[in-house]
Design goal:
Layout (H helix, E strand, L loop, with lengths): L2 H29 L5 H11 L3 H18 L1 H10 L1 H20 L6 H31 L13 H4 L2 H23 L5 H32 L6 H22 L3 H23 L2 E3 L9 E2 L7 H28 L13
Antiparallel strand pairs: 1-2
Helix pairs in contact: 1-3, 1-6, 1-8, 1-11, 1-12, 3-4, 5-6, 6-8, 8-9, 8-11, 9-10, 10-11
């Protein structure tokens, strides 16, 4: 078996899990915007037990990239250095906010840390969209696998549109998660209405983004990519129908599938590349010229076969433990 392909598939799985799980985390954080204090508290309570476990998927995906494809890791971090630094600051503020917002019961204190959660959700969601589009669109990478552009090169219109799309997609996904976690009927009805508006807006931007990406990238070169993108749009339409029918489970499962198909479609379009060079196609980083040695990949495959199922079982167990809906009585204020 070609271990380079195996690790490409494993990284695809890790990023798919990350975008699904951390996607609704970011979405719930952004849903807190302009909400009353008691509602924001219920939103935080809904993701409080699981947000840090979801974030581990990003760390694991980065670690897998570093171990399996070190040249990609080095080039990617130099390419997105400033963007990743901004993302890291936002994630630090977000993590601290979850821990400190309930330590004091003063409105200014709570409002400040709630803003930290919102800011720490908005920035990573936007930057992940920008990064994903740039990876597929192509970056000025030379024959030495060095990025020779600058930060402003990353902020092209296509990438910014991708960032906006990711913002909408994750917020819609987060709203659907709240449909299965909030017990208060009045708040639930309000979230359902917002989910419908978000779903319609997301689909419109998705279609526009797909059209722009078809011109700016080579996503149409592989039939598999088109199939997965079609399945993704179909799943999001089903999610919208589930929200309209008041079926939170259908809405959330469908938006989960929508993100999964979108991520798989992206990696299908990239394969066997991992970073596309806009200077010369032969200078692109792929699963062979950027990979670790076969011995390293073999050892890592054995370790992954042992520990990945354990992590999956533990995370499934944690979701089962905290599966109950959040009620206003779960949140206490002086």
């Amino acid at each position: 078996m070609d271990l380079n392909i195996v690790w490409f598939i494993l990284i695809t799985v890790l990023f798919t899990g990350f975008f699904i799980l951390e996607g609704f985390d970011y979405g719930v954080g952004m849903m807190m915007l302009c909400r009353p204090k008691n509602e924001r508290a219920q939103f935080v309570r809904a993701i409080g037990p699981v947000w840090d476990g979801n974030e581990v998927w990003m760390i694991t995906a980065g670690g897998a990239m570093f171990a399996a494809f070190p040249h990609v890791y080095a080039t990617m971090f130099s390419t997105f250095y400033l963007a990743l630094f901004l993302m890291l600051l936002a994630l630090i503020m977000r993590g601290v906010a979850f821990e400190l917002r309930g330590k004091l019961q003063y409105s200014d204190w709570t409002n400040f840390w709630d803003f930290g959660i919102m800011f720490g959700s908005f920035v990573p969601a936007l930057l992940w969209g920008v990064a994903v589009v740039n990876l597929l669109r192509g970056l000025p990478i030379n024959y030495q696998m060095h990025y020779v552009g600058n930060f402003l090169d990353l902020l092209n219109p296509c990438a910014l549109l991708g960032g906006i799309f990711f913002l909408l997609l994750f917020t819609f996904h987060g709203a659907n998660f709240l449909l299965i976690k909030i017990a208060d009927e009045g708040l639930l009805q309000n979230i359902r209405q917002k989910s419908l508006r978000l779903g319609i807006t997301t689909l419109i931007v998705y279609v526009i983004f797909a059209g722009v990406a078809a011109v700016e990238t080579d996503i149409l070169a592989k039939p598999g990519t088109i199939i997965f993108l079609g399945l993704s749009i179909g799943a999001l339409i089903a999610s919208l129908a589930g929200a309209k029918a008041g079926c939170g489970c259908k809405a959330f499962i469908s938006s989960t599938l929508g993100i999964a198909f979108l991520t798989i479609g992206f990696f299908t379009a990239m394969f066997p590349r991992l970073m596309v060079s806009s200077i010369a196609p032969e200078w692109s980083l792929n699963i062979y010229n950027a990979a670790s040695t076969p011995h390293t990949l073999t050892l890592m495959t054995i370790a992954a076969a042992i520990f990945v199922p354990i992590v999956l079982c533990y995370q499934a167990w944690s979701y089962k433990v905290f599966k109950e809906r959040v009620t206003p009585a779960d949140v206490h204020y002086h």
